[in-house]
Structures are given as structure tokens and as C-alpha cells.
TrEMBL record:
Enzyme Commission identifier(s): 2.7.1.158
InterPro entries xrefs: Ins_P5_2-kin, IP5_2-K_N_lobe
Family assignment from sequence similarity: Belongs to the IPK1 type 2 family.
Biological function: Phosphorylates Ins(1,3,4,5,6)P5 at position 2 to form Ins(1,2,3,4,5,6)P6 (InsP6 or phytate).
GO cellular component: cytoplasm; nucleus
Biological process according to GO: inositol phosphate biosynthetic process
UniProt keyword Membrane, yes or no: no
Organism: Coregonus suidteri
Reaction(s) catalysed by this chain's protein: 1D-myo-inositol 1,3,4,5,6-pentakisphosphate + ATP = 1D-myo-inositol hexakisphosphate + ADP + H(+)
Protein name: Inositol-pentakisphosphate 2-kinase
Length: 521
């Protein structure tokens, strides 16, 4: 396919944020009517400014925590500043300057925050209302609105920008020798987790998406992966138009998403009225156009020259296909083309793979750190267990020795690497696209289908918070539960594998409780 995309060179929403900051964020004039509900995840709620390309990300607490842990403003500000530092000093160098916008910690008037909380309450999905927005500290993270694209041609463009948000999750199979469960080298974590989520009632249908297809670098596999995300978006896929969410998982999990509705939204972008194609195109043609654009943006190698073959990152055979993927076997066998170096997926995958030992190899090292800290609690600060997230923290992550010398430094380095990898396994990608006007800087002679629209786009990564040190034990238990559930659910006759898991004893090899809880499916 001819590349119809042109990067919005020099687009830096952060600059826009700074230059307009004093104008928009005059703290004494903050008015809740200037802000509207934008979205939320497990830990934060996001509101967007109605005029300017800016969002505020406010922390959330579970109702019990909100009553019990009254963080002082100073503590809350420190927490948010830690997020900024981690994004800026740790994740940005690993993921790339151009993809990461760390934003800034701000203190807001309490009255504004309370009014805002009341205003957004009715917009919040029921499934997220187990937590409340922090209205006590007045602290928030101010970020560029990454669903918008600020470049000169977009201002002239009458069609609002589109933005596709993908939470890709973990894109490789572990190859660590510490892995005791064979199935983990065959079926990816996301696909196994789907069965566990279905049993727990988190979702009503299995997603056919497999992250290994998205990260394969093979366009056919990637297109199918995105199609599967569209079919069943869960919390992995959203589409925004002009900053408004027009496609996401329905809170009523029984209702299937309406792809025809989505295609209606997309038609003017991909099949504009002046198009040479006069007859109405079926929805799937329009959706396919969008998918092609997303794939191109995800594979775009921002540091490579346009001419010549971009360098590719290849994973070793066996780590690249998931046995649970529903794609045709021959496509999976021959369909790993590697990712162009420095494209957004390559950066994310490289960072995810800092988890080189798998949770099974990491857990004993975590316990080594725990024992050491019990003996020497003051060492917590030197080892930067809870930050600060500065250059020295990054060096601990990057310079961790390859071999275990039995030291606590090695163990801490691996735990830090694991936590960074966890952030990369849980981040989201924003691909913002806008159609270019007729005369926007392209040599017309290269066009072979003049009726096709052209796009500017920007790619960003969001949700780059540090994962708490303590979460390692939780991860270890969750891993055992997901794997054991998967084995029970899909391979009930695989007694050898089940025996290996000490399933009947309710304990795994690390002695963690992995007793299964059964729910009707
Ligand atoms: O453990 P996972 O893989 O289920 O990931 C959690 C996510 O669930 P998912 O599987 O994507 O639906 C979960 O997402 P949801 O709340 O399910 O949308 C969070 O992102 C959670 O991160 P945190 O604890 O809020 O920092 C994520 O927890 P971490 O494991 O990243 O800490
Ligand atoms: N800078 C931004 N620009 C535009 N939209 C954003 C921005 N930051 C967050 N969002 C939107 O808000 C949603 C929630 O934000 P985020 O993922 O950071 O929350 P979270 O609670 O940390 O998520 P998680 O459940 O993964 O822990 C995102 O999915 C995205 O749609």
C-alpha cells in the first residue's frame, strides 16, 4: 500500500501546554464548566478542557481508602510529582522522547475540584464507581490532550481529528529458565487471562485479540489483531473524534459494539464526498481503511530515513506466536516480520522485555530484597525502593548485571527492571490522525490515487505510572491463578501439567496460595 500518511513534523503538544499554561490555568479562575469528563481507568479519572488541548488527571481511591488514608496535600503532590519524574527520567529515555509527555503536577483550588467531582459523577461508568475521585488534596497531573493533534494544517481542517487508543498488553512469551509452567511458553498471558476474566465476570465474551499478533510486525497479523480489538474492545481499544469518545466498550457488557455506527463516523475521513468512488462502500471497507492507517502509524520508524529498508527487531522463534491465537496456522508460522527499529511497538516491546526472569524468577529475588530490608530498613532509601525516580534509578535499571552474584544490588536491579516492564505492559498508545487539506505540502506527482485522503498523525504513549514495589507478591499470586485456571479450563486432561503445578495441594512451587476459585461460566 502506498503510504498515505505524513508525520506532523515537529508537533509538540507539550510546547502548546507550556505556552498556553498561564492563560488556561489561572488557578484563581478555575471553573468546572470549562472542563468535562473524558475517561478513567483503575487509578485515575481524566477531565478535558472544553477549548484547549489539555487534560487534568486526578487520582482515585477506593471508598475505604478515601476514608482511612487522608493524604496531606504535600503527600499527594509528592505522589504525583513521582509519576512525573518516573515518566520523564525513566520511561522517556526507554520509550523515546517523541512518544512520552510527562506533564506537570499542579495544585488546584479545592472548591473547583469538589464541583468538578459532582459534575462528572453522572458521566462515570458504573463499573468504575467502586472508587472515588480525590477531592481532598487538590493535586492533579496536567497533560496535553493526546486525542487532539496540534499542527497548522489541522487547524484549517474542517474534520475533527480522530484518535485511536490501544492498550496492547504484553507482546512476548517468556523464555526464562525459571518458568516452571510449560503452557506459559506456548500461550500468552493476555489470552490465558481472558479465560480467568470471563470466569470472574469481568467480561462476558472472550476477546479474539492476541498481543503477539499486534507486535509481530506482519501487517496481515496486525490488521487482524486490530480487527479483533474493534470487535470486542474491552478496556483495550477506544476511538475518539474531536476529543469525544465515539467507540469503546459498552458498560452494558451484553451489548455488542455497532461497527456500522462506527463506519458511519469514519466514512467522511476515508471516503470523502469528492472521492472517485461514487457508490456507497460497505462498512468493512471503511473500517479496513482505518485499520491500515493504524498499522502504518504503529510501524512508523521515526528515526529512520524514509528511503531504504528500516532495521528490524526480531524475537527468537518460539516467542512470537501464541497457540491460543485464532489466526490461521500458516499465517502464524510464517508471519513474524519483526518490528522496525524505534517504531512505537518496538520501543514498548523492548521495555516490556526488561522482565527477563518472569515473575517466577523474580519472586525469589524480591524475597531477598525483603529479607535485607527487614535487617537494614534504612537501606530502603539508598536502594531507591520508592524512588526518587531520577538518573540514578534509571542507571540501576540499565546497568543491572546479567548474572546473579548473590548481592542485594542485583536483586534490587531486577525488581526495578520488572516494575518498569510492568509499566510498559500496562501502558496505552494514542494514535491521533487528521486529514490534510488539499495543498498540504505534498508533491502531487507521487499521488497515484488522488481521491484517497492523506493524514497527519502523532503517536504517544500514556499511563506510564510506576508500579508499586509491593505489587510483586500480588503479581506472583495472580500469575499462578491465571495459569492454573487456564489449564483447568482448556486442558482438563493434561494431568501431567496439572501435577506439575501442585494444583491439588493448592500451592505452587514458591509456596504461594494458588487454590482455584470456580465461578459459573
Ligand atoms: O494485572 P493486569 O494485567 O490485569 O493489569 C491491570 C489492568 O487490568 P487489565 O488486565 O488490563 O484489564 C488494570 O486495568 P483495568 O482496571 O482492568 O482497566 C489496571 O491497569 C491495573 O493497573 P493499576 O493497578 O491500576 O496500576 C493493571 O495491573 P498491573 O498488573 O499493571 O499492576
Ligand atoms: N493525556 C491524555 N490525553 C487524552 N486522554 C487521556 C490522557 N491521559 C489519559 N487519557 C484518557 O483517560 C483514560 C484513563 O487514563 P489512564 O489510563 O492514565 O488511567 P489509569 O487509571 O492509570 O488506567 P489503568 O486502569 O490502566 O491503571 C485513558 O484510557 C485515556 O482514554
Amino acid at each position: 500500500m502506498v503510504c498515505w500518511l505524513w508525520k506532523a513534523a515537529g508537533v509538540d503538544t507539550e510546547i502548546h501546554l507550556r505556552t498556553t499554561h498561564s492563560r488556561v490555568m489561572e488557578l484563581d479562575k478555575m471553573d468546572e464548566n470549562d472542563w468535562k469528563y473524558h475517561g478513567e481507568g483503575n487509578k485515575s479519572l481524566v477531565v478535558s478542557h472544553v477549548q484547549h488541548a489539555r487534560v487534568l488527571r486526578l487520582l482515585k481511591y477506593s471508598t475505604e481508602d478515601a476514608e482511612n488514608s487522608h493524604k496531606t496535600t504535600e503527600q499527594a503532590f509528592h505522589h504525583i510529582q513521582n509519576i512525573v519524574d518516573y515518566s520523564q527520567n525513566v520511561m522517556k529515555p526507554l520509550l523515546g522522547e517523541k512518544f512520552v509527555h510527562n506533564g506537570e503536577a499542579v495544585k488546584l483550588p479545592l472548591d473547583f475540584v469538589r464541583q468538578l467531582s459532582l459534575k462528572v459523577q453522572q458521566e462515570r461508568p458504573e463499573s468504575r464507581c467502586d472508587k472515588v475521585m480525590d477531592t481532598l488534596s487538590g493535586c492533579a497531573l496536567c497533560l496535553p490532550n493526546l486525542t487532539q493533534l496540534s499542527c497548522c494544517c489541522c487547524c484549517r481542517e474542517h474534520r475533527p481529528p480522530l484518535c485511536i487508543e490501544i492498550k496492547p498488553k504484553c507482546g512476548f512469551l517468556p523464555s526464562s529458565t525459571h518458568v516452571t509452567k510449560d503452557i506459559k511458553s506456548k500461550v500468552c498471558r493476555f489470552c490465558m487471562h481472558q479465560h480467568f476474566k470471563l470466569a470472574n465476570g469481568k467480561w462476558k465474551r472472550l476477546s479474539r485479540y492476541c498481543p503477539l499478533d499486534l507486535f509481530s510486525g506482519n501487517k496481515q497479523r496486525m490488521c487482524l489483531a486490530i480487527m479483533h480489538l474493534m470487535e470486542e474492545p474491552q478496556n483495550n481499544f477506544n476511538i475518539f473524534k474531536g476529543g469525544e469518545c465515539i467507540y469503546s466498550c459498552n458498560d452494558d457488557a451484553d451489548v455488542l459494539q455497532d461497527l456500522d455506527d462506527l463506519a458511519q463516523h469514519l466514512r467522511p475521513y476515508f471516503l470523502p464526498s469528492g472521492s472517485l468512488i461514487s457508490r456507497p462502500q460497505p462498512s468493512k471497507v471503511v473500517l479496513n481503511e482505518l485499520i491500515q492507517v493504524i498499522v502504518s502509524a504503529l510501524l512508523s520508524s521515526w528515526d529512520c530515513p524514509r528511503s531504504g529498508q528500516p532495521r528490524k527487531t526480531h524475537l527468537s522463534e518460539g516467542r512470537v506466536t501464541c497457540e491460543a491465537s485464532l489466526l490461521p496456522r500458516d499465517l502464524l508460522r510464517n508471519g513474524n516480520h519483526g518490528l522496525p527499529k524505534d517504531c512505537v511497538l518496538d520501543k514498548i516491546l523492548g521495555t516490556q522485555m526488561l522482565d527477563s526472569l518472569d515473575i517466577e524468577g523474580l519472586n525469589p529475588l524480591f524475597k531477598r530484597v525483603e529479607q535485607y530490608l527487614q535487617k537494614f530498613p534504612k537501606e530502603r532509601s539508598r536502594l531507591q525502593i520508592d524512588g526518587p525516580y531520577n538518573q540514578s534509578f534509571l542507571e540501576k535499571v540499565q546497568n543491572c548485571p546479567a548474572e546473579d552474584d548473590g548481592s542485594v544490588e542485583y536483586a534490587v536491579g531486577k525488581v526495578h527492571q520488572y516494575r518498569v516492564a510492568m509499566t510498559a505492559k500496562d501502558c496505552s498508545i494514542m494514535v491521533a490522525i487528521a486529514t490534510c487539506g488539499e495543498d498540504d505540502g505534498l508533491d502531487q506527482s507521487v499521488e497515484i490515487q488522488p481521491a484517497k485522503p492523506r493524514f497527519n498523525y502523532s503517536v504517544s504513549i500514556l499511563d506510564l505510572d510506576p508500579k508499586p514495589y509491593e505489587s510483586v507478591s500480588h503479581q506472583s499470586r495472580l500469575d499462578a491463578k491465571i495459569v492454573n485456571h487456564y489449564l483447568r479450563r482448556t486442558q482438563p486432561n493434561n494431568l501431567e501439567e496439572l501435577a506439575n503445578q501442585s494444583l491439588f495441594l493448592g500451592r505452587d512451587r514458591d509456596g504461594e496460595d494458588c487454590t482455584l476459585v470456580f465461578h459459573p461460566v
